[in-house]
UniProtKB/TrEMBL annotation:
<protein>
    <recommendedName>
        <fullName>Replication protein</fullName>
    </recommendedName>
</protein>
Length: 201
C-alpha cells in the first residue's frame, strides 16, 4: 500500500446483522475504512492493489466510493434492534469481548492531524467551499478541576414529567453530589420543577 501511495487513515468497526447459529448469536463483523491516496491509480494498478491486500489480510476487501459526508463512514457500531435481541448473558458476553477495543479509530496522518489540533486548541471549520483552521473555544472545558471540594446539590439537568420511580408522572432533576443535609438550592429546585412542568428549563 505504501508503494502505491495509499494509506488507511480511519476505520470504523461495525457489528452487522445478527443471526443465530445453533441458538448462539453471531454478527456480520466488518469494517468501514477511509484511505488517503497521494495519486490516482490506473484501474489495473488499483485492482492489483486490492488483490494484494486481500491476499495479505485473507478477508474480503473491496473499494466503495468517494466519501462526501463523514457520517457515511461511522453511523453506528451496532444497531439498537440487534442489541435488544440479545439476552442479558449474551449482552454481557458481547460487552466483555469488545471491552477496551478501539472499535472506531483514526490512523496514520489523520491521527497525527487530530493530535495537532488538540495540542494547539484548534479545530477545522468549513467556510464556503474551503476548510480553515480556527481556534477551538471549547478546548479544555472538559478537563477536571483538582482544586476545592466538589459542589453539593448541583442540578445537572431536568427531565420532562414521566413515571420514573412510581406510577405517577412527575418532573425530575438529576443532581450532582446530592445531600439532603445541605439542600441550599431549594429555590432553584422549585424553578427547575416548574420549568420541567412547562417543558423547558
Amino acid at each position: 500500500m505504501k508503494r502505491a501511495g495509499v494509506q488507511i487513515v480511519f476505520r470504523s468497526t461495525e457489528l452487522g446483522t445478527m443471526k443465530r447459529q445453533e441458538d448462539l448469536p453471531t454478527f456480520h463483523l466488518h469494517v468501514h475504512a477511509i484511505v488517503q491516496m497521494t495519486r490516482k491509480l490506473p484501474k489495473a494498478e488499483w485492482s492489483y492493489l486490492l488483490q494484494r491486500v486481500r491476499g495479505w489480510w485473507r478477508h474480503h476487501f473491496k473499494d466503495s466510493q468517494e466519501v462526501h459526508q463523514a457520517r457515511e463512514v461511522c453511523k453506528y457500531v451496532v444497531k439498537p434492534p440487534e442489541i435488544e435481541a440479545l439476552s442479558g448473558e449474551e449482552l454481557k458476553a458481547l460487552y466483555e469481548q469488545t471491552f477496551r477495543l478501539h472499535l472506531v479509530q483514526c490512523l496514520g496522518a489523520l491521527k497525527d492531524q487530530r493530535k495537532t489540533f488538540e495540542e494547539n486548541d484548534t479545530m477545522p471549520r468549513k467556510e464556503s467551499e474551503r476548510w480553515v483552521v480556527v481556534k477551538n473555544w471549547n478546548a479544555g472545558r472538559g478537563k477536571p478541576s483538582t482544586s476545592g471540594k466538589p459542589s453539593r446539590n448541583s442540578i445537572v439537568c431536568t427531565l420532562a414529567p414521566a413515571a420514573y420511580l412510581t406510577n405517577i408522572k412527575e418532573p425530575a432533576a438529576i443532581i450532582l453530589n446530592y445531600s439532603d443535609k445541605s439542600m441550599i438550592q431549594q429555590d432553584k429546585l422549585a424553578r427547575a420543577r416548574d420549568a420541567a412542568l412547562l417543558g423547558h428549563y
